[in-house]
Amino acid sequence: MAIFKGAGVAIVTPMKENLEVNYDKLEELVQEQIKGGTDAIIITGTTGEASTMTEEEHLDVIRACVDFTKHQVPVIAGTGSNCTKTAVYLSQEAEKAGADALLVVTPYYNKATQQGLITHYTQIAEAVKLPLILYNVPGRTGCNLMPETVAHLYKHVENIAGLKEATGNITQASRTMDLTDGKIDMYSGEDAVILPLLSIGALGVISVWSNVAPFDVHQLCQSFFDGDLETARRIQRKGLALIDALFSEVSPIPVKKAMNLMGKNVGPLRAPLCEMSEAGTKKLAEALKAYGIL
User: Fold this and answer.
1) Are strands 40-43 and 132-136 parallel, antiparallel or unpaired?
2) CA angle, 80 then 45 then 184, to 5°
3) DSSP letter at 52?
4) Following DSSP, what letter does each residue of 69-84 receive, concatenated?
5) What is the spatial distance between Cα 50 and Cα 55, in angstroms, rounded to a whole number?
6) What is the pLDDT of residue 66?
């Protein structure tokens, strides 16, 4: 059974002005997402600024999200690291915290070989009982999880269940689906190509866009599953300009700015991320207005 089907939000981590995690606001955001139709909450991922959290904070945020969600939708915890031992520890602690699944990004900076990636993911998967979603985003990590490697892991490691496909390469995604006999639980990691990936067998998306328009992203997926392709196409096209603005600077800079412009008060970003440029903010505000949010 799939971990989830439809729209999962890669939720931001709201901060207070002193850069402490704002747990009250996080609870509010989680409940807003559930009411908006979001099918899963993905916590402590790229959008959640996990890379600037201490391990203690990282796990506290996962625990809080599990508590706030109250089993209404699955909680998928980001537990990746460029150190296998650290990823194992975070994964084990997330399992203890009650997460439903894990999202594990490829090791970054140290550029593992494909054999190194097999060893990395096998050790993590064997240390827990939860299902794992592999996360391939080479534009950020400098490391590309090749289709053959994904297929090997999927076929040989029991609890490796899915892939967040964020290469932007439809050919590579199609090859991965082919090598896994169309059975891997693939999720788009690129909001602009949700519909194309659904068309090759993906089950949904792990979405930044959902932070500002959860109902629309859920409805795009559901319309596709219901066979209403015209509605799915319309929603995907409607979102393109906003998605472009949400990725016009390094994510999650624009999405946090968008949410603050919407009055959600999710606070600042931790360094080395910085506030959005004046020109970028103007473009983003215009896109939000054109979309109908502002």
Assistant:
1) unpaired
2) 70
3) G
4) HTTSS-EEEE---SSH
5) 9
6) 98
Place of tokens 């930044």: 208
Task: Return d(Cα 182, Cα 154) in angstroms, integer.
Answer: 11
Q: How far is CA 88 from the centre of its chain?
A: 19
Closest listed residue to residue 201, CA positions, set 167, 224, 228: 224
All residues at 6 or more sequence positions from 289 whose CB lies less than 8 Å from its CB, including other chains: none
3-state secondary structure labels for all residues of 159-205 = CEEEEEECCCCHHHHHHHHHHCCCCCEEEECCHHHHHHHHHCCCCEE
For residue 272, is the peptide bond before it cis, meaning its omega torsion is within 30 degrees of 0?
yes
Alpha carbon distance 29, 42 (integer Å) = 12
Active site residues: 135, 164
DSSP for 115-154, written as a single string: HHHHHHHHHHHHT-SS-EEEEE-HHHHS----HHHHHHHH
Instruction: Determine phi and psi for 215, rounding to 5 degrees.
Output: -65, -45
Residues of the chain with pLDDT below 50 are none
pLDDT at 20: 98
User: Rounded to an integer, what distance in angstroms lies between the CA atom of residue 149 and that of residue 179?
Assistant: 10
CB atoms within 10 A of CB 144: 18
- Given a contact cutoff of 8 angstroms between Cβ atoms, the answer to whether 126 and 157 are in contact is yes
pTM beyond 0.85, yes or no? yes
Distance, CA of 168 to CA of 193 (rounded, Å): 8
